[in-house]
């Protein structure tokens, strides 16, 4: 069974500061990894995904994430936070067994941007 | 752009009622999913479907059923609503194939059971 752990239910950073949201996963097979963002009263929007190949993945809105197999991590970063980045962020994992299984999500991290 | 539309943004029902949540996608996706989202618990998979009339249980199927009579439509049914089913419900869809296909989400239905 796969699982996802997001460290910190709330993360607060100042506008212009580095954003780092942590995600660790467990999976018995090579994983596919995703980061989603949820703005208030909206559904989830895909930020970026890792499937195979390059371990540094660039997404929308200036976010990127690095897959580190040895650390079973897929942390999300952004060099300079903007007020519009305030939202809930979810890390998710899917195994590579094929088929149509749903994603396994972490519990989410609420990103707060201080002016 | 992919559009996943959930029929209601907010819904209030009474205990014991039969409740239908509807979801429609316009991208000819094979796979469709229902999740519930609760504070501190993230998203949990209720049911999913990989084809018309096909369904599979997710992690928390108890108290729910689903229907997929047409490819674009996936319905979640609460047979006899209870207060512990008060939650945000999210529908998603994706193309078939390996699990690297991203899921596209609707805006959610916030359901309150009184």
Q: Tell me the number of strands of chain A.
A: 11
H/E element sequence of chain B: EEEEEEEEEEE
- The total of helices of chain A stands at 0
Ranges of chain A with pLDDT <50 over ≥5 residues? Answer: none
How large, in whole angstroms, is the Cα Rg of chain B? 13 Å
- Gross morphology of chain B: globular
**How much is the radius of gyration of chain A in Å?**
14 Å
Low-confidence stretches of chain B: none
Largest interface (CB within 8 Å) is between: A-B, 29 and 32 residues
**What is the CA–CA distance across the termini of chain B?**
36 Å
Biggest sheet architecture of chain B: 7 strands, mixed
Bin the strand percentage of chain A. Answer: over 45%
In helices, the fraction of residues of chain B equals under 10%
pLDDT averaged over residues of chain A: 89
Structural class by sheet pairing and helices of chain A: mainly beta
Explain what the structure shows.
The complex is a heterodimer of chains A (115) and B (114). With 115 residues, chain A is mainly beta. Chain A is built from no helices and eleven strands. In chain A, strands 2, 4, 5, 9, 10 and 11 form a six-stranded mixed sheet that branches. The mean pLDDT of chain A is 89. Chain B has 114 residues and is mainly β. Chain B has strands at 4-6, 10-13, 19-25, 31-38, 42-49, 56-57, 64-70, 73-78, 87-94, 104-105, 109-113. Chain B is globular. The A-B interface holds A 9, 32, 34, 36, 41-46, 49, 51-52, 90, 94-108 and B 4, 9, 30-31, 33, 35, 40-45, 48-50, 56, 58, 90, 92, 94, 96-100, 102-108.
Please outline what is shown here.
With 115 residues, chain A is mostly beta strands.
């Amino acid at each position: 069974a796969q699982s996802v752990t997001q460290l910190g239910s709330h993360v607060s950073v100042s506008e212009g500061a580095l954003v780092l949201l942590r995600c660790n996963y467990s999976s018995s097979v090579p994983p596919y990894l995703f980061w989603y963002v949820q703005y208030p009263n909206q559904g989830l929007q895909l930020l970026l995904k890792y499937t195979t190949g390059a371990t540094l993945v660039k997404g929308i809105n200036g976010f990127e994430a690095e897959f580190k197999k040895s650390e079973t991590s897929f942390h999300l970063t952004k060099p300079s936070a903007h007020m519009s980045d305030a939202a809930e962020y979810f890390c998710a994992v899917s195994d590579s067994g094929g088929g149509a299984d749903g994603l396994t999500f972490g519990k989410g991290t609420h990103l707060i941007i201080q002016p | 752009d992919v559009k996943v539309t959930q029929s209601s943004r907010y819904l209030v029902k009474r205990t014991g009622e039969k409740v239908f949540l509807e979801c429609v996608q316009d991208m000819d996706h094979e796979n469709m999913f229902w999740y519930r989202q609760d504070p501190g618990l993230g998203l949990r998979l209720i049911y999913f479907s990989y084809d018309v009339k096909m369904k599979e249980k997710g992690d928390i199927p108890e108290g729910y059923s689903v229907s997929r009579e047409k490819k674009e439509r996936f319905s979640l049914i609460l047979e006899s609503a209870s207060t512990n089913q008060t939650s945000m419900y999210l529908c998603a869809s994706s193309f078939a194939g390996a699990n690297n296909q991203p899921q596209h989400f609707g805006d959610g239905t916030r359901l309150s059971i009184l």
